[in-house]
Amino acid sequence: MKTIRALRRGLEVIDCLAASAEPLGLAELYRATGIDKSTLLRLLATLIEQGWACRGLGDGRYRLTATPVTLGPASAEVSWLSLVGPYLVELHDGLGWPSDLALVDEASLRIIETSRPLSRRIRHREVLGFRPGPLRSALGRAWLAGSEERRRQTLLRRLASGPGEAAWLARDKDYLARLTQEFDALGYARRDPAERLMVSAEEPGYAAIALPIRRGGEVCACLSVVFVPGEAEEAQLAQGLRHVITALETPATPGV
């Protein structure tokens, strides 16, 4: 009985992605499977089209969106990655500035996708996996201010009991009041100008605004736009964020 070579090769790619603990790039898949790169690209495009895989916008690497053993949904992170990429491209093209998506990861946020590689205006691009500060970053402030009161107080108590700057900021009632008042007045969170962790000394101080993404009444992620102060209108950026977040808050992908 004849076998279908293209199907066999597609299954090889799926097995390779499933066996890897990390997402894989094209060169890694080529080394692991021996399939020429042009064929690999066609196979990967088919898997993406059929919802089996996705390619990260920030790292350009491939990961499965479903597990081949159970045919069930993959992790929430992969589900978000398979959904959000086109929206981040649309947002970048419309605003001219890149965005970061951070997922709520237990007691902190973690950036899982970014459109910074598309931008020539922002030099600092290596942000995947970064955990933004909860009380100075725009992402962290959007998470905190956008959460319902009971959840917010739980987060603040946890921060206050920990080490470092976040602990004393979480106990500073005046600072927290200003943070929430600004969020309520503007309708979005701003990065504290003192937040410089993601910028080198040679680069300009970037600004950022962010909004929470809610599912089931809970903040599950936050989306920011990063820009150079004085070169963008915050109101326009916020409008673009709200448009994308409205789409993302409508469940469209299992597990998201």
TrEMBL record:
IclR-ED domain location: 67-256
Keyword set includes Zinc-finger: no
Molecular function GO labels: DNA binding; DNA-binding transcription factor activity
Keywords: DNA-binding, Transcription, Transcription regulation
Domain HTH iclR-type: residue ranges: 4-66
Gene Ontology biological process terms from the UniProt entry: negative regulation of DNA-templated transcription
InterPro entries: GAF-like_dom_sf, HTH_MetabolicPath_Reg, Tscrpt_reg_IclR_C, Tscrpt_reg_IclR_N, WH-like_DNA-bd_sf, WH_DNA-bd_sf
Pfam families per record: HTH_IclR
Listed name of the protein: Transcriptional regulator
Native source species: Bisbaumannia pacifica
